[in-house]
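User: I've been trying to design a sequence by hand for this structure and keep getting stuck. Would you show me what you'd pick, starting by listing the structure so we're on the same page?

Assistant: Good idea, let's start from the same input. This is the structure you sent:
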């Protein structure tokens, strides 16, 4: 028997722009079907195999029963301590692993959650231009935040442009979206 219930449309979904990586994936597949050789610069996925010692460690750890569950939401303490040490070694910055380090599945997830947690209706995010297309910025927009483009290319003094953007914007920007790739 066919489902006769009315189909519900979700207006928020309808307002979202197309996800650019879906569009590029379709274009790549069409080009490959035509026999074209594609060099893929789209998502930043690895282009080589994972080093064998990492695969071996994963296989070993996956056999342990204590790893058959979810991680803590902030990430395991040992990893947060390693992140804090890395920041100290690389940037000479002290980060408290208990209150200032968190583990995410990637930069997009981290930025999306940061925006959801900190942006309110009417807030502004500085967005470097050019930039990679991104879906996490949409999360800021769903919170009612707006964006202000900030020119960032070789012919432009980035810091002068940044200062101008901050000076001329109201309300003052609450955050700056990093330029990816950096």
């Amino acid at each position: 028997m066919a489902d006769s219930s009315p189909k519900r449309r979700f207006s928020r979904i309808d307002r979202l722009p197309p996800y650019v990586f879906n569009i590029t994936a379709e274009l790549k597949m069409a080009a490959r079907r035509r026999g074209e050789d594609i060099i893929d610069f789209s998502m930043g996925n690895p282009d080589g195999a994972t080093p064998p010692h990492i695969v071996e460690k994963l296989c070993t750890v996956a056999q342990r029963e204590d790893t058959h569950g979810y991680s803590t939401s902030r990430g395991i303490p040992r990893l947060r301590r390693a992140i804090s040490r890395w920041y100290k070694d690389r940037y000479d910055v002290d980060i408290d692993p208990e209150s200032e380090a968190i583990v995410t599945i990637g930069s997009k997830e981290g930025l999306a959650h940061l925006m959801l947690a900190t942006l309110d209706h009417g807030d502004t995010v500085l967005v470097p231009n050019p930039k990679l297309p991104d879906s996490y910025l949409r999360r800021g927009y769903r919170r009612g935040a707006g964006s202000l483009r900030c020119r960032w290319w070789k012919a432009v003094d980035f810091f002068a442009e940044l200062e101008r953007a901050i000076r001329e914007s109201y309300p003052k920007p609450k955050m700056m979206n990093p330029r990816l790739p950096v």
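That's my pick for every position. To get oriented when you compare it with your attempt: Residues 77-91 form the longest helix (15 residues). The two ends are 54 Å apart (CA to CA).
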